[in-house]
Write a structure and sequence with these properties.
The complex is a heterodimer.
Chain A (H helix, E strand, L loop, with lengths): L2 H21 L6 H26 L7 H17 L5 H25 L4 H20 L4 E3 L3 H8 L1 E2 L1 H21 L6 H20 L3 E2 H19 L1 H11 L1 H6 L4 H27 L1 E3 L7 H11 L12 H19 L4 H28 L1
Antiparallel strand pairs in A: 1-4, 2-3
Helix pairs in contact in A: 1-14, 2-8, 2-9, 2-12, 2-13, 2-14, 3-4, 3-5, 3-12, 4-5, 4-12, 6-12, 7-8, 9-10, 10-12, 13-14, 13-15, 14-15
Chain B lengths: L1 E12 L2 E12 L2 E7 L5 H9 L6 E6 L3 E4 L11 H5 L6 E2 L2 E2 L1 H14 L16 H13 L5 E5 L7 H16 L3 E5 L3 H7 L2 E6 L2 E6 L6 H9 L4
Parallel strand pairs in B: 3-9, 3-10, 5-8, 8-9
Antiparallel strand pairs in B: 1-2, 1-4, 6-7, 10-11
Helix pairs in contact in B: 4-5
Classes of the chains: A mainly alpha, B alpha/beta.
Chain lengths: ~350, ~230
């Protein structure tokens, strides 16, 4: 995506910052922004998976339920079977991948709309989550690894080293793929990484969860833009028939994307559980799914396929999370919060539709 | 040298005999135009040559690879020219897309074919109809075929764009390719073809030399009127 396409959401972010800061001086404080980073981490990962699905022009309504079921599986294998934390998290990811694989095969094999298959999934996986959690319906997490995902803060020096490593990584992939990244862009990357680094360092340090989310988003962005698989995803989303005639296995791309999307949803579930220190019956429920979809769309990923970027998941989550956080600070009531979030989503999708009709008219 | 040969092609759809014993030959460095009214069997013949469905009788012999450019082009509007040219055939280096190599090859290919575009990194949606057609043809050339089959390449194009595409067809011929062009537009056919094959109601009714035949003769063959 070009900077011009990103402009609406960037302007939106600035507006959110100005409005809420003027209403409550704590909004842009280091402490609140660190909290905001932790609040949006799980949703960002779910949105990241949804971006892939949206790029195909499909939808995944089961993402929230899958994140909840993934977290439940993680909790159960840890608490009931005593597996170590990393293996529990892996079990969650595999659960997500298996579900996505199943849904993807069902969608392509029987040509049932993804809307329907994942809506059925939404119900079924919610049921599975209740079943897995059993009678108590809730599990407290105390594994050091899992809890540490959201409770660990890196000191400024470690954060700075990570940022340098990230910039080096971008430069390196640019050299490997021989597509030049200008010094200006690297500088921009330094600033957009350095600013949060400074903010986080003024509070508790750089949250490990934020580092993980940014790392996953950057990796997935590279997958979309720099690999053959990513190119094929964009092609299928842009014109599936053209992709098929070009010899691309459209079905395989679709199945892989649904598997990847659900796996990222489960990863989001892991982070959410880590932050809550528990898994319960409402994990992955509520407005997680809709906020994640809204994040991807507000960030600039089209609902109509073929256009968008993985970064939009993070940028959109920042906008949605920022609004929600700001309204919480102000103590606004739920009716107002839902109304405002809905209005912002409607505005974002309208901007997308207008942009689309304008480019079609050209 | 014969690159494509159709012998006694026959195909029936229900009560309709779409093709009835059609013979056709395309040799290297030759542009053959396939003309006929709606329902004459052009599309059926083209699809049979492309292998979309089997013939009831007769055979299609290919001596070398065939590339088809369908009328609907099948380009991805959201991708740029380079990405479209190399779709499904991406150049990869160290597991990542080799954009530089693809861009170089794209520039060289477009220059060779005499195609001028505003920018190879422009999304295809920003191109004119003629430019899109040129990209689709260039994409087909990239597969290094011996024979190219162009389905209505100038339909829906303006005058200047049509000239651009016809020039491209002539360029393909000078590269030694055999080209089979399906067209409705007789002006285009007379301008670019070395041979005109006329179908009517599933049969080949005429094979004419555009330098010798008059346009009236072609029209008469198409309509079946005795001029």
């Amino acid at each position: 995506m070009t900077l011009k396409e990103r402009l609406p959401v960037l302007i939106g972010l600035v507006a959110i910052a100005i409005v809420f800061q003027s209403l409550n001086a704590n909004f842009l404080s280091a402490r609140n922004l660190t909290n905001l980073g932790l609040q949006i981490a799980a949703m960002s990962l779910v949105a990241c998976g949804l971006v892939f699905v949206l790029l195909l022009g499909e939808i995944d309504l089961s993402a929230g339920a899958v994140s909840g079921l993934g977290a439940a599986v993680m909790g159960v294998v840890g608490v009931r079977f005593g597996l170590p934390g990393p293996l529990c998290a892996l079990a969650a990811l595999l659960t997500g991948a298996a579900i996505g694989l199943f849904q993807g095969v069902w969608i392509t094999r029987f040509t049932v709309p993804s809307f329907v298959v994942t809506l059925a999934g939404l119900l079924a996986w919610q049921g599975a989550q209740l079943g897995v959690l059993g009678d108590t319906g809730s599990l407290n997490l105390n594994d050091g690894f899992i809890v540490g995902l959201c409770a660990t803060f890196l000191p400024p020096l470690a954060g700075g080293a990570l940022l340098v490593a990230a910039i080096t990584g971008v430069a390196l992939t640019s050299v490997l793929s021989r597509r030049w990244v200008s010094a200006g862009r690297l500088g921009l990357l330094g600033i957009s990484g350095g600013l949060p680094l400074a903010i986080f360092s003024a509070d508790r340090g750089v949250p490990l969860a934020v580092v993980l989310v940014v790392g996953v988003v950057a990796l997935m962005d590279a997958v979309v833009r720099r690999t053959r698989f990513g190119r094929h995803v964009l092609a299928v989303g842009g014109n599936a028939e053209a992709a098929r005639r070009a010899g691309i296995s459209v079905e395989r791309v679709r199945i892989a994307v649904f598997a990847l999307g659900s796996m990222l949803a489960a990863a989001g579930g892991v982070l959410a559980a880590s932050r809550l220190l528990a898994v319960n019956q409402s994990s992955g429920g509520g407005d997680l799914l809709l906020n994640a979809i809204a994040s991807a769309v507000i960030g600039g990923t089209s609902l109509f396929g073929g256009r968008g970027s993985v970064w939009s998941a993070l940028i959109g989550a920042l906008a949605i999370g920022g609004i929600s956080n700001g309204m919480d600070l102000l103590g606004w009531a739920s009716p107002v919060k839902y109304g405002v979030t809905g209005a912002v989503l409607l505005l974002a999708v309208t901007v997308d539709a207008l942009a689309r009709s304008r480019s079609a008219a050209r | 040298m014969t690159l494509l040969e159709v012998r006694g092609a026959a195909k029936r759809f229900g009560a309709v005999q779409a093709l009835d014993g059609v013979d056709l030959r395309v040799t290297a460095g030759e542009v053959v135009a396939l003309v006929g009214d709606n329902g004459a069997g052009k599309s059926t013949l083209v699809k049979a040559i492309a292998g979309v469905f089997p013939l009831d009788a007769g055979e299609v012999l290919r001596h070398g690879a065939l590339s088809v450019v369908w009328q609907d082009l099948a380009l991805c509007d959201n991708l740029d020219v380079v990405a479209n040219l190399f779709l499904g055939r991406e150049r990869v280096r160290h597991g990542l897309l080799d954009e530089l190599e693809m861009e170089r090859e794209a520039q060289a290919l477009l220059a060779r074919l005499g195609v001028t575009l505003p920018a190879v990194r422009a999304p295809v949606s920003a191109l004119s109809g003629g430019q899109r057609q040129s990209v689709a043809v260039a994409r087909a050339v990239l597969a290094q075929p011996k024979v190219m089959l162009l389905d209505e390449p100038t339909a829906a194009l303006g005058v200047a764009q049509t000239a651009q595409v016809l020039q491209l067809v002539a360029r393909l011929r000078s590269e030694g390719l055999g080209v089979l062009v399906v067209s409705h537009n007789l002006a285009d056919v007379f301008q670019v073809a070395d041979r005109i094959v006329v179908l009517r109601l599933g049969r080949k009714v005429a094979e004419l030399d555009p330098k010798a035949a008059s346009r009236e003769a072609v029209v008469a063959a198409i309509t079946g009127a005795t001029a």
